[in-house]
Automatic annotation (TrEMBL):
Residues 4-116 form the Response regulatory domain. Keywords: Phosphoprotein. The modification 4-aspartylphosphate is found at residue 53. InterPro entries: Bact_response_regulator (IPR050595), CheY-like_superfamily (IPR011006), Sig_transdc_resp-reg_receiver (IPR001789). Gene3D superfamilies: 3.40.50.2300. GO terms for biological process: phosphorelay signal transduction system. This is Response regulator. It holds the Pfam family Response_reg. PROSITE patterns: RESPONSE_REGULATORY (PS50110).
Length: 117
């Protein structure tokens, strides 16, 4: 059974790109286009990993991460930040890998593989 990855990003083109890339590499995917939707999906889908954009119109990636870490059943889900944003807030500096946009495909795939091995 393929590992499932939740993509949380408000840009449909980025989501489509990441879904195609991950599916081509034998991962299952699901997507959310806001932090609120992302929290619902992570609770429902129980992904093996979350790819998280930091800059979104609602509460942003930081609030998604902070809220996810408060919930017992999903708090240990690995996260990889995929964002064009510069410095990360303190909540996201503790061992959370960051892939900058535009995405380096080989770096993303190797980081994903390491986090859900």
């Amino acid at each position: 059974m393929p590992k499932k990855i939740l993509i949380v990003d408000d840009d449909p083109a980025i989501v489509a790109f990441l879904e195609d890339l991950l599916r081509d590499n034998d991962y299952s995917t699901c997507a959310a286009y806001s932090c609120a939707e992302g929290l619902e999906k992570v609770r429902k889908e129980k992904p093996d990993l979350v790819l998280l954009d930091m800059e979104m119109p609602d509460k942003g990636g930081t609030m998604f991460y902070v809220n996810m870490r408060k919930e017992g059943e999903i708090k240990d889900t690995p996260v990889v930040v995929v964002s064009g944003v510069g410095p990360r807030p303190p909540a996201l500096r503790k061992g959370i890998p960051t892939i900058e946009k535009p995405v380096n495909v080989s770096l993303l795939l190797s980081t994903v593989a390491e986090r859900i091995a």
